[in-house]
Design a protein that fits this description.
The chain has six helices and eleven strands. The protein is of the alpha/beta class and 187 residues long.
Length: 187
């Protein structure tokens, strides 16, 4: 079963977290949600984390381990990613996911975390208008698009495109799993 962690914080974009969480569950994935110290959080429109009584306990940032996940989803909401990108544990985790070739996916303002982690240099990405300069200054080539996949790095310019974003997350994780299977068979 594939696994993902949604990394967020207070003031998250409710659409980003709710949609990605339930789509991952619907596809049979193991899903964790991580916040600073594993603390409860509320989205900008009032959605609480954890979202329901069946949800797993929230994971603290300092417990994130790249070996445990196939993908990390970095959600938007302006306030949440701006706070999250200041956490050294999250930045180290995102760098470790990138170094391992695992999917690092940023939605709307989520790529701010990717900027601070330094994983966009030399990549092609799309960006929400308010992040465009930051993503360019981080060394990425920014193109006007809804969703961009550059290897294992996925960016989405706005939460209205979250459906296409998640399709690419699923496809990219599946493709990377196929590559690992082929590598093991060849060895």
């Amino acid at each position: 079963m594939p696994s993902a962690v949604i990394v967020t914080g207070p003031g998250f974009q409710d659409h980003d977290v709710v949609y990605t969480y339930y789509r991952l569950i619907e596809e049979g994935w193991h899903v964790d949600v991580a916040t600073r110290n594993g603390a409860d959080a509320v989205g900008k429109y009032g959605v609480p984390l954890p979202m329901d009584k069946t949800a797993r306990p929230l994971v603290a940032f300092d417990r994130l381990d790249a070996d445990a996940y196939d993908a990390v989803i970095l959600t938007g909401g302006h306030e949440a990613p701006d706070r999250v990108r200041q956490d050294a544990h999250v930045l180290a985790f995102v760098r470790a996911m990138d170094a391992a070739g695992k999917v690092v996916a940023g939605l709307c303002h989520g790529p701010w975390i990717m900027v601070s982690a330094g994983v966009l240099k030399g990549r092609t990405a799309c960006a929400y208008i308010g992040l465009r300069d930051d993503v360019i200054n981080a060394g990425a080539e920014v193109v006007d698009s809804d969703v961009i996949v550059d290897g294992h790095i996925i960016t989405c310019s706005y939460y209205a495109y979250v459906g296409r974003f998640m399709q690419q997350v699923f496809a990219t994780v599946a493709a990377r799993a196929g590559e690992r299977t082929t590598e093991r068979a060849a060895a």
